[in-house]
Design brief:
By secondary structure, the chain is an alpha/beta fold. It contains nine helices and eight strands. It is 39% helix and 16% strand. The chain binds nickel (II) ion (NI).
Amino acid sequence: MLIDSHAHLDDGRFDKDRDKIIKSLKEDDVDIVINPGADFLSSVKSVNMSEKYDNIYAAVGIHPHEAKNMGEDTIGLLRDLSKKGKVVAIGEIGLDYHYDNSPRDIQKEKFREQIKLAKELNLPIIVHDREAHKDTYDIISSEYDGKLTGVIHSFSSSTEMAKKYIDMGFYISFSGPITFKNAKQPKEVAKEISLDHILIETDSPYLTPEPHRGKRNEPLNVRYIAGKIAELKGISFEKVMKKTAENTKKLFKINEK
Ligand code: NI
């Protein structure tokens, strides 16, 4: 069975068929979905879903786009929320210098605050890094205490950077772009790093992989990510499916919940 390590099923684009999608995951060979929060409300929705459905696990956190809207009480609210449902991580958190929806100094400050919360709660982090590779790494490595762990989701940086994260025990997650013809970098990284450090995800409803580009993304499409990694590494689909599921459960301590 496959695991989709990152999907936003709380998104409004799933309002009409969310229940149906989640209930049919098993038929689609998807065992588990990890659903990160994007803002506080979506973190609440994510936790609620993890209470309602056995196959949904939640992360709570504020995306860099929303960093500017974090108030003084947000960290406390996230802390309380993390004690509910099946919360397995703080995320998604990080830096986005592509859209710059929040000022960069605020993004950095809120990213660091949420990493500190993850350390306090002994939870892994789910990291969003878009065109902010150096600052993302600098913040994570400066907060690294030998225990902090997590995943860099929808990885878009270099092999060299991937190896630096792996040295800290972090995981590298691949999504739709690895299936795109023009995306050389994620393909190269996937070939170069060991399967022991790889997770797979859809980032639904975004980043729909080939051959369904242009449509809404869904967790069942995680098979195309596994298939592409198998092809790039010259190994079987089953091996990628099994190992990435194992890695995801290990990172998020899923068997212990
Ligand atoms: Ni996401």
